[in-house]
């Protein structure tokens, strides 16, 4: 469990005058579950988006499995396929079935035959408890079910790391638990994960390490027992006090 899959060094990103990431250093090793907490606007999504190549950093480096994302020789398309991402909104096709949504990246990006794609998709839907809803259209299922389908769709690509950006923030409160349970099961299966969340109890349960971001820097990081119950930094204490 000590081989780094992701190495972020002195990562910087601005939008115009606004400096959003001010030198982020973060390493994630294979099998590790790292949660990122912090106030809205602290740069958490921008950090994930730089990892997933949705934003181009202004400085510093991101290495995925030893390959520098900013190196022109790096095959970004191939790298992106190895990184799964789940957003707050589910980004599923509303007019397609759950199964079709999961098969789509396999038949298009992977050019898999339909029968094979269906087999993979059904397997992943089973894993998130959505197999019985495979033929439902996305607009017929609940937000919690849609998010579980979105997780299955990402898993179909057999990613080496899963990035979650507030996966339960858009859900009705009674749907949050079913999605967190799926993510917890994934963590237990050994999946490497970087999770932005405001669910502190969940982060405490699931994480090997918790990172507290504040105004574009990592203010504090450590095991959940320390960050949540014995934080070193006054800013961490102040942030966490809002959740009690
Ligand atoms: P968080 O996810 O922690 O809430 P974000 O990374 O989304 O924070 O945003 C950090 C800051 O960057 C916010 O002030 C946000 O308004 C700004 N920001 C994010 N994306 C853009 C963008 N594409 N253009 C301009 N400003 C942005
Ligand atoms: Mg965000």
Automatic annotation (TrEMBL):
Keyword annotations from UniProtKB, A to Z: Amino-acid transport, ATP-binding, Cell membrane, Membrane, Nucleotide-binding, Transport
Enzyme type, top EC level: translocase
Bilayer disposition of the protein: Peripheral membrane protein
GO MF annotation terms: ATP binding; ATP hydrolysis activity; ATPase-coupled polar amino acid-transporter activity
Alphabetized Pfam families for the sequence: ABC_tran
InterPro entries assigned: AAA+_ATPase, ABC_ATPase_HisP-typ, ABC_transporter-like_ATP-bd, ABC_transporter-like_CS, MetN_ABC_transporter-like, P-loop_NTPase
SUPFAM superfamilies given in the database record: P-loop containing nucleoside triphosphate hydrolases (SSF52540)
Isomerase is among the record's keywords: no
Cellular compartments annotated: Cell membrane
The EC number(s) this enzyme carries: 7.4.2.1
Entry GO CC: plasma membrane
Domain named ABC transporter: residues: 6-240
Reaction equations catalysed: a polar amino acid(out) + ATP + H2O = a polar amino acid(in) + ADP + phosphate + H(+)
Record PANTHER family: AMINO ACID IMPORT ATP-BINDING PROTEIN, GLUTAMATE_ASPARTATE IMPORT ATP-BINDING PROTEIN GLTL
Record-given protein name: ABC-type polar-amino-acid transporter
Higher taxonomy: Bacteria, Bacillati, Actinomycetota, Actinomycetes, Actinomycetales
């Amino acid at each position: 469990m000590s081989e780094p899959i992701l190495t972020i060094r002195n990562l910087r990103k601005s939008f115009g005058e606004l400096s959003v990431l001010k030198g982020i250093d973060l390493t994630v090793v294979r099998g590790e579950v790292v949660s990122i907490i912090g106030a809205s606007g602290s740069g958490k999504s921008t950090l994930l988006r730089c990892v997933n190549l949705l934003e181009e950093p202004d400085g510093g480096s991101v290495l995925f499995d030893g390959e520098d994302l900013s190196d022109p020789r790096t095959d970004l398309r191939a790298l992106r396929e190895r990184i799964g991402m789940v957003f707050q909104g589910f980004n599923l096709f509303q007019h397609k079935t759950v199964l079709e949504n999961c098969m789509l990246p396999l038949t298009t990006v992977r050019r898999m035959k339909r029968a094979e794609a269906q087999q993979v998709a059904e397997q992943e839907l089973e894993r998130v408890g959505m197999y019985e809803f495979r033929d439902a259209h996305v607009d017929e299922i609940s937000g919690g079910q849609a998010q579980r389908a979105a997780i299955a769709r990402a898993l179909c690509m057999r990613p080496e790391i899963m990035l979650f950006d507030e996966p339960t923030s858009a859900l009705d409160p009674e749907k949050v638990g079913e999605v967190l349970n799926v993510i917890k099961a994934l963590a237990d299966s050994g999946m490497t994960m970087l999770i932005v969340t405001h669910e502190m109890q969940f982060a405490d349960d699931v994480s090997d390490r918790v990172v507290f971001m504040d105004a574009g820097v990592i203010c504090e990081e450590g095991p959940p027992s320390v960050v949540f119950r014995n934080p070193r930094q006054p800013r961490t204490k102040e942030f966490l006090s809002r959740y009690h």
